[in-house]
Every structure is written in structure tokens, then in C-alpha cells.
Structure prediction request, 812 residues.
Amino acid sequence: MNFATYLTEGFYDELFTGPSSPRPGARLLVERLESLPEGEILRRQAAAETALLQMGITFNVYGDTAGTERILPFDIIPRIVEAGEWETIERGLKQRIQALNLFIEDIYHGQRILRDGVVPEHVVRSAKSFRPQCIGLRPPRGVWCHVTGTDLIRDRDGTLYVLEDNLRCPSGVSYVLQNRQVMKRTFPLVFEASRVRPVDDYPSRLLDTLAWLAPEGRGAPTVAVLTPGIHNSAYFEHSYLAQQMGVELVEGPDLAVIDGHVHMRTTRGFQRVDVLYRRIDDDFLDPLAFRADSLLGVPGLMEAYRTGRVALANAPGTGIADDKVVYAYVPKIVKYYLDQDIILPNVPTFVCWEDTERDHVLAHLDSLVVKAANESGGYGMLIGQQASASQRDEFAARIRADPRNYIAQPTVALSRAPVITGEGFAGRHVDLRPYILCGREISVLPGGLTRVALRRGSLVVNSSQGGGSKDTWVLSESDVADTPGAVG
Amino acid sequence: MLSRVANSIHWMGRYIERAENVARFVDVNLHLALDLPPGAREQWQPLIAVTGDDELFAERYGMATRERVIEFLTFDRDNPNSILSCLAAARENARTVREIISSEMWEQINRAHLAIQSAVPRWRELDMASFYAEAKTAAHLFTGIADATMSHGEAWHFLRLGRLIERADKTSRILDVKYFILLPMLTDVGTPFDTIQWAALLKSASALEMYRKRHRAIAPERVAQFLILDHEFPRSIRWCLGRAQRSLHEITGAPPGAPASLSGQRMGRLLAELMFTTIEEIVRGGLHEYLDRFQLRLNEVGQAIHSDFFALRPLGPGTERPEP
Prediction:
């Protein structure tokens, strides 16, 4: 298997600049791949898939009653990010999360940014993710959003854009860690020679971030991961992170609030919990504060949080900053709080509540991507180019009925990376989700989840819609080694 | 540790042990069928009695034949005690406690589960003897991996407690069913066939070789003595309960002589009886009656473990206070 017939077909390719010309950071990898004996790449791909299945690295598919688990399809050709480019990404992500944390703090306190007219007040008030219950909250250490997974995409000309800031419970980091384990077995020698930056210390960093939030005076704080349970699609990740951090994985019914403190039920009675890394949406956290019908939550949790007796990561209410309409204002938000120009730009976004922008969107539905403000995972979305006339009409009606709930963006010709197919290597569209931890300092995991749309031509990378993943190799400063070595 | 987690680990231990026991006694019966004298009928119905699923079987299959029993006990998804169901349940429990057990344990349980799932569609073409051998090895491997990779703390003791209670229960059932079937055949007493049958019973509990070292000649009472009262053989009821009691004490921290929990009291009483009774006394009172009563009391121990450690007790004013 080689790249002789591999074509970039006019897209930006993450590994190649053109036919048979790999990018500098990818040269070593491509060389080694091409030197492998015929059939070896397919053999290693199969071995990697078997390893993932045996490790039980699976996700649950909603609405699938037969087999509830599947492995996330994995392609062993890594995506490579060179050191210089990563440095920009890292600075850009830190800038964004710093500004967004200030924005959330402001929204639930003085609302200066609304009074100054930088973000329209009605946009915030009407957001489904705005939580009046959070007004006046003082989250421990003043940080609202501790764990972020930002989606980046790259256009044809090579520009990187932020597609979404995921500030609630972004998932996928466990795949980053596990994919890396498998890749080290799959290409040990190329891996070593490429000087890939490690990602393995993420669980320790996450634990540090969480422990830092514990109420004062709790010597060795008890940290736990709060999961909705085994039927949640990200259950594997919840359990994996708890295991790697060496903390308890709890479900709502394991917890009870007694005398204002959160406790877990153990074989030796109740034990106090100081920090919850919660992977349950705000709505389901506490039936007394949010949705009364929630069976997943813990009655009294919010009150314990408000009085500083337990810490939650992320804080409730962070969703206000990743509402898709608020997203459109992030460049202004960065300018407002930090007085800086944005490093990682947004995809140009039309907000349909504004008459002129809505008219533009309705007139150009065939070339735009329309998204509902409060949906994720590739649901509630129209890709105008690929949609039928009746689908476009349906969306036009929805936009007119509820303009606040829709935004539109030009179709970005997502960059591609080679994947292994039955007919050799072929280019498929990818995005990138790096993970940012915000504790004592802001740290960006050097790597991330590269999601790939495995169907030819598809632009939808979500795992629920036929997407797979790749390992992401961020190279260290010294860049690519040029010493010849054995075939990896 | 969390009550829910302790419960899952306990049941993971039980299900793995159950799967192994079922594999063992079905396998022994397959071998036994090869040694039957001409004209003798293969005995498959008693196997169903061991797991206590006679009704479910009769309803779904009718008459017990070799193929039906193998299917029912090995691959039937609707039989909660089939090897397939036990492994699936063990894995489901493992999945909820994956952060507690070692990755190696999880991978082993996952491998065993995937192996039997993939065998289902083609099971009639399989060599069942090697299939059961693999199933037994998979369970032993899991136990070995657990012993070697998991800290022998509270979670591990709950795992062992589950395994030993299950093992004691299955040994008593195998003995009960076989003894009941074997004894009435007075015409066979002392014949080679009789010896083969008793040897098969011992094999069902992986006990033949160890029995020979202890008692040499095969005699019904000695077999019962070995499987109930032997203090060294790791599948005898007494041995299982002795170790189970130790785990219970490790979990509660109470010394053996002064149990602090209902489960500790019940376990201690049951074990004391086993330690100070003789096989002659048991046989005089009726072996079947003895085993029947034992199983009831073992269930009571299980219920006490449940209420002492696993039950999610409702919160009410004054019912329970957190530990300081």
C-alpha cells in the first residue's frame, strides 16, 4: 500500500501538500508506511481494531436495542500537527477560555457586557442554557469552566477556525488516551522517531485541577466522577477517567445530601465528597434546583454547592457561553475582556434573529450550513448543499418560526487526511478537538481527538453519524528527526 | 467503597464461578456418556436440577436430551444460569466497576464474553470438550489475574466472598443431585460402572485426584465427607466457608470470634457446625435433608450480606447519620 495514487483533490490535506509530497512533519511517517511489506498496513489496522474491542473501548448507540456497544471506528494513520502550528493553537485556545470564563462570571454577576451593549441582552436571556439559578453564584476559586473540548476545523486555504466551544461536559478525551496506547503498539518505531508529545499525563492533570477546587480545610479531598450511568453513551469515558485518576465513579443514587454536605453511600456508611467531576447536564443535577423529574440527580446538591460545601466541575451555567448564537459574539467577547484580537477566529456566522442576516440566510440556504442553537452531536442541522429542496423549505419555515434558535455558516471545505480504505489510501474530512484544563493555570493537552468522516465526501464527523477517529501527533519543538532507523 | 460497587464486584465473582461450575459439570457428563455400559440411558435431566432450572427447561425444551441440555446450559440467552448469560452478567457488572478492577481483569472478562458470543451461531460444529476446557480456563485465568493484579483490599474480598459462596452452593447442589441419583441403584453397587459414576461426581467438582490422595478407595460416604467437610480441598463446602468468613472479617474489621454484623453471625454459626460435625451424623439425618437445609442457610447468609453492605437504605430523619 503506498501513496503514489493518493490525491488531495483540491482540499487542504493534513499530511500532504500535493501528490507524493508529504508535509515536513509527515515525511518520516509516509516513508515508513511506504516501506512496509504489502498487506502489513491492513494487518496492523486489523490488530489495532481487535485491541480496541478487547479493551472494551466502546460507546453506546442510542436507539440501538440489539447490541448496545460499538467501538468507535479507528484509523491508524495519525494526523500530524507541527510544533509551530500547535503553538498558535495553544495560545488561541488559552485566550478563548480565559475570556469565556470572564464572560460567564460577568453574566451571572454584574452583566457589564450586556449593559455596554457588546452582546445583546435578549440573546443571553433567551438562551436555553442560561440558568437564572446561577445568578450570584461564586464557584470555588472563581473558575466556571474547568474542562473544555473545543472543536477546530480547517478550511481549504489552511486557516483554522473554532467551530464550537464545548463548555459543558465535552467528551472524547478517553479516546485520545486509548488511541495513543494502541498507536504506540502499532507503530512503535515511527512513533519514537517522530518525537510525539505525550498525552498520558492528562488524568493526573485533571485530578490536580479537581482537587484544587475542594473546600478549604479538607486535607486529602475526596473527588468523584458523577455519571448518569451505564446507559449513557460516554459511560466508558466516565469510568476510564475515574479509574485513571483513582477516584470513585458515582451515580446520583449513590449520593445523598446530609446536614448540607454531599455524601456517598459506602459499605461502611456515608462518606463525605468534596469535589464532583460531573458528567451530567445541568438540568439533571438536582431535582430541587433544576428539572424536578430528574432521577439522575441529587436533591440538595445545588444548595451544597452554593454554600461552598462541595465543588462541581464544570460549574452549572457554563452552557451560556457555548450557545451557538453567543458563539457568534466570541471575538467581541475576547476584545471586550482582554483587549486582544482573537487568535483562533470563528467561522463567519449569521445570526437569524437579526433581520438582515436572516434575509441573507433564507436567500442562500443552498450554500449555507444551518444549525439549531441548542443542539449538538450533528443533530438539528441542515447542510444546504446536500439537502433536498423540501428539506431546505422545512428549515426555512423553522427559522421563520423561531429565528433566535438558528444560526448559519458558509459550508467550510473541511481539510482532509488519508485513511485506509479497501482501495488503498483515500482522503477523508477531519476536525480536531483539543482539550483544555483550567485550574491554577490553563493547560492544553498536546494532542486531541481527530474525528474523521469515514464516508466518502461526508462532512459530518460525529460518532453518532458514522464518524471515526485518529490519533493526533503533536510534534515537539526539535521537529522531525532525520536519522534513519528500522521500519516501525 | 461504594455499596453499589461492592454489590457489583460480589456478583461478578459469583457469576464467573457459576459459569465455571456449569462448564465443569456439563463437560463431565459428556465424558461420562462415553463410558456408559451398553443399553444404559444417558443422564441429562439431573444437570438441569443442579442449577435449579427444571421448570424453565421443561417449558422451553420438554424432554432432556444431550443437545438440548448443552444448549440450555451453555448458550441459551433466556436461561439466566447459562454460561453465556453468566459471562454476560459478569461482564455487565465488571463494566459498572471498571474503574475499581484492574484493566487486565476487565480485558479477560471481556475476552471470555466475546469468545462465547462469537461461538453461539456455530456451536453445533464445535468440539464441546475443548470448548468447556477453554471456558474453565478463562474463569481460572480471571481468578488468577484478579489475585495477581488487584490489591487484596475490600473490593477483592467482596470478589472472593462472592466466588466462595457460589462455589459452596454449587458443590452442595452437585453432591445433592448426584447422590440422590446414584444411591438408589443398588444393583450397581460395587460394579465398575458404580465406581465410574462416583468418580464422575468427584470430577464434576474437580475433586477426583485430590480425593484419591486423601481416601484412595471410592466409597459414597467418603466422597460426601470429602466434598462437605475436607479442610484442605478448595472446593469443599467447609473450605469455601472458612475462606469466605475470613474475607468477611477483613471487610468488617471485626475479629472472627466477635462478628459485628448479621452476615458475620450467620456465617460463623454455619461454619462452626461444619467444623464440629461428622459425616456419620450427616448421613444418619439424611444427606439430602442436610444439604437442603444448608442451601437455605447459605441463602440467609447471602441475604445478610446484602442488607449489611449493599442495600441502598432510604434516608429518613434519625435513621442514619454519617460517620464522623
The longest strand of chain A covers residues 424-433. The first helix of chain A runs from residue 27 to 35. DSSP finds 15 helices and 24 strands in chain A.
